[in-house]
Every structure is written in structure tokens, then in C-alpha cells.
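Aim 2 progress update. The chain analyzed this quarter is reproduced below.
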Amino acid sequence: MDETTEGQLRLIRRVIAVTRAAGISAWLFGGWGLDARIGRITRKHGDVEFWVQRTHAQRSKAVLMAAGATALATQPPAEACEFTWDDVPFSTAYFDRQPDGSSGQVLGRWSDWLFPPGSFGDDPGTLDGMPVLAMSVCGMLAMKEQYPHLRNGGPWRQKDIADIAVLRALAAGDGIDSHTRAT
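Predicted C-alpha cells:
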């Protein structure tokens, strides 16, 4: 495991410990979320991303800063907050639960992004032997599949296409072998 991956894993542990101690759930998504659902680290990651329920947005920012993270003014505050902690970048994006059980980011540029019921559940994934909350497979698949069709979306990158294939296999209950996910 390289130094960047080790630093990101330390950061994930810290963010989870700090938010959990404050009674705030934080779900990994993106590459780290997918790795948590697969149950192992499959590749290097450029960032660490968490979803936090909007009702906890300001408190999550405050507890992370009190613990040592530095908030950056790079994102619209209604959507997300980017941070660094010991030079490791990460972000928290905010979602809203809907009465029908679905979720989405109803404020900001991504208000047309909708996630199915169960996207933010209590069933943990695993990273480096550590149980972690991660967005559900169905939620991450919906997120990836919708992206090119959103008003602010864009074309899929090669890694998105590879992730969609893995997410579809996971959703179908197929096994994921070492060659399924691109590195």
C-alpha cells in the first residue's frame, strides 16, 4: 500500500470517528465507497468523498474543524464542503431524505440527482478490515448512471464506465474478481 492510500485510510478512520462521536452518520461514496462495498482496496484514489444528511451539514463541518480539519471555501455551501486534514483532501456533500424514502441533493447545481430508497442505510462496507458506512450499491449505480443526463452532468470517464460495470455486477449478486475493476 502506498503512502497516499495509507494517508487516505487514516483520514477515513478519523472522519468516521469524529462524526460518529458527534452522532452524525457519514457515508463514503465514489471510489472509496465502491471499494468499501467490494470489501477491499482495488486502486489508488484521487480523493475521499462522504455524504452527510443536510440536517447535519453545519455541525459536521464544525466538529471536523474542531478536530483539526481545515475547511476550504471552494464549493457552494448548500452543496458540499471540501477540507484538508494533514494535507489529505476530502469532502462532505449534503443530501436530503424525501418522504418516499428516496434521497437527493435538493439544493444547488445537482438538484436533479435522485437516489433510490436505501441509498443511505446502516449496512456497513469494509475497508482494510474496518466497517464503514458507504452509499449502497444501488445508490452509487443510480448516481453514476444519471450523471450524463443531469443538467450539470457530463460524459462518463473511462473509470465511470468501469465502475458502472462493477456496480451492476454487485447489484446482480455476481462475484467480483481481481480483474473486474480497472486499476
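The longest strand covers residues 88-97. The chain has five helices and nine strands. These observations will guide the mutagenesis experiments scheduled for the next reporting period.
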